Structure formats: structure tokens, C-alpha cells
Amino acid sequence: MPDVVLHCLGCPSLSCLVCSSWQRMQNDKDLPDTLVKRLIRRRRVEIKYETEAKAEPNTSPSEATTQGNERCDGGVDGRRDEGEGGWEPPQWRQVLKNLQAMRAAQDAPVDSMGAEQCIEQGAEPKVLISLMLSSQTKDQVTHAAMTKLRQHGLTPDSLLNTSDTTLGELIYPVGFWKKKVAYIKKTCEILKRDYEGDIPSTVKEMCQLPGVGPKMAHLCMDIAWGKLTGIGVDTHVHRISNRLGWTRHPTKTPEETRIALEAWMPKDLWSNTNLLMVGFGQQICLPVGPRCGECLNKAMCPYGKNASHGSSKKGSPRKTQKRKHPE
Fold first, then answer.
1. Among 88, 136, 243, 284, whose Cα sits 20 to 30 Å from the Cα of 194?
2. What three-state secondary structure class fits 33?
3. From the centroid of its chain, how far is CA 208?
4. CA 327 – CA 325 distance, rounded (Å)
5. DSSP structure string for 140-200
6. Exposure on the CB side of residue 98, measured as CA atoms within 13 A
7. Strand boundaries in 190-287, DSSP class E
8. Which backbone phi and psi does 48 adopt, to 5 degrees?
9. Catalytic-residue membership of 314
10. What is the distance between the alpha carbons of residues 13 and 20, in angstroms, rounded to a whole number?
11. 3-class SS at 225?
């Protein structure tokens, strides 16, 4: 252990227990005793090491920096794995078990018509197109549009050779279909030019495609490439996470929710979170008029507890007080 010395805070001298000027002041008989005693009580000292602890042999500075932040899975992104300290939602394991029990039948629209159903040999571009169409669109509508596109020809070349009018007719009535026609055309041009008709293999490159955001990118990386890069957070996951109190503080955007969830959720749960919550949001935790009476988590859900108070018109959004997150 390195040698230590005791010195006064703010004193430039490290060679003595207390500085010489302080000793002289204590010995000065002209100073009143009460003043000396008061200063003694206020005197503060700290321990300082004369030599810093040295890094272990054969350890580079970068390794020494990352060792303290390293995750169990080898990452150093600051997200925590199970067993590490930090905030986590109260009773989240029981809440998760209840969610899984309510989704055991796997009979929500997303289970049969979601982007995962596009998995097949060489289907990577199809997964991306499906995710682009699914934004602000019900799964039933997205599935119908994808069926028509498959019959027409769903490759970058075939879509580029399709007129905007025809492409619009094929994907109508998906949400913002006119914009998506332009996004699909521009994306297909990029895929053909830069990726030989395939899709990017990183989230960063994926998000640079027209009309592709973080949710689509993370889901596409997981479904098409089998790489788990993050939780795919859409409006369902965003809404339900805030209702359950699964974010430490209320979040305003899906991207904020993704960051908040990844801060505490074990990584082995990330991949299934989107499918689990989307189906739950389609069947029980609806955007308007949620069926809290059917939810197994009603007693543990901050939103569910408030939903039983007061009356609200059927089908109208429930007015609830701003929830407080347990610290």
C-alpha cells in the first residue's frame, strides 16, 4: 500500500502533519483562546496518497478503463445485466410472468401477420419492406399489402421497375402510403447500388435509409440478421412501458423508452419484448379503453390502479393522474 500523509485542505505543504503557519497561530499568545478553539473545531484534513496505484502488468490503459464497466456479455455500453445494481421496476418479474401468461395463446394479429412471418431464404429485403409498411399501420393492413407485393414481385429490381401509381395501389391503405412509396423507391435504389440488393448489416447504416428509424433497424437486425442490437420499441411498447412504470421516469418518445428499458432489463429478454408487448397492446392494453379488468397486472400496474377510480365514457381515453415512479 502506498505511503500516506495527512495535510490541511488547501495547504500547499504535504511534508508535515499540519502546516507550520497553523502551528505558529496556535502558539500565538495574542490570539484569544476562544478563536483558537473555534478554528481547531473547523480545521479539516484529508488523506492523500503520495503515489497512485499502478495498473496491473500487461494491462493497457484502455483495458484498465473498460474493466470496471464491462458487462457480463462482454459489452461495455453501460447497460446492466441481471445481478448488477441500479434502479429496476418493482415486482417486474411477476409482471413479466403475468404478461407471458396473458400472451400464452399467441393469437394476436402480430403473431400471424407481423414482420417475423417474412422469414425465409433471402427474405432480408422483404423484412425491411414489411417493417417500413408497418409504421402507423395495423398488422392486418400491412399483411394484406405484403401479400399483394409478393404476388407482384418483392425484390429491389421489381419494385424499382414498378411505377409510383402501381406501387401506391399495391400498398394502399397503409398509413402514409404516399410517403412510403417514395421511401421504398429510394431505399431500393440504395440497396441495389450499395449492398448488391441486400440490406445493411448495422443499425447505423440501416437508420440512414429513407423512412427507417431505430425501431425498424433494431427489429430488422434481430429478425433478418439474427443480431440483437436493441429493443424494438413502437407505440405499443412505448405506451405499455409507461403504464406499467417500467421506465424510471415518464418518457415522451419510443426512443427514450428504448433507452430506459435497456438500462435495467436483462439482455436475454430484449428480443421477445416487442412481440410480447405488441400482442398485449392489441388485445388488452389498448390505446383507448384498455381492458384493465381483464389484466392480471391490474393490482401492480400504476395505470391499472388509477383506472378503477372515477368514471369515464366507454371508448374514451381515461383521464389518469401523472404516475409517480418509485425510486
1. 136
2. helix
3. 19
4. 6
5. HHHHHHHHHHHHH--SHHHHHTS-HHHHHHHHTTSTTHHHHHHHHHHHHHHHHHHSTTS--
6. 15
7. none
8. -125, 145
9. no
10. 9
11. coil
Residues 65-100: tens digit of each pLDDT: 333 333 333 333 434 444 345 999 999 999 999 999
Q: How far apart are CA 283 and CA 135, in angstroms?
A: 19
115 vs 117: CA distance, rounded Å:
5
The beta-strand segments (E) located in 19-115 are 45-49
Please tell me the distance from the alpha carbon of residue 327 to that of residue 321, in angstroms, as a whole number: 18
CB 231 within 8 A of CB 261: yes
Residue 261's pLDDT is what? 98
- pTM summary value: 0.69
Q: Three-state SS for 88?
A: coil
- Alpha-carbon distance 49 to 302, whole Å? 50
Residue 54 pLDDT: 38
Q: What's the Cα-to-Cα distance from 14 to each of 21, 132, 146, rounded to whole Å?
A: 13, 66, 75
| Overall residue count recorded for the chain in this entry | 327
Nine-digit cell string for 298: 391490474
Reading the block at residue 307, the C-alpha cell is 383506472
Residue 1 Cα to chain centre, angstroms: 42
Contact 304, 295 (CB under 8 A): yes
Per the rule left: phi > 0, alpha: psi between -120 and 50, beta: everything else, 153 is left
Q: Please tell me which residue in 126, 180, 215, 267 is annotated as part of the active site.
A: 215
Rounded CA-CA distance 66/76 in Å is: 7
Q: Are strands 45-49 and 4-8 parallel, antiparallel or unpaired?
A: antiparallel
Greatest alpha-carbon pair distance for the chain in Å reads: 102
Residue 154 φ/ψ, nearest 5 degrees: -115, 70
In the chain, which residues have pLDDT < 50?
A: 1-7, 9-10, 12-18, 20-22, 34-84, 309-327
Bridge partner list, 137: none
Amino acid (one-letter) located at 49: Y
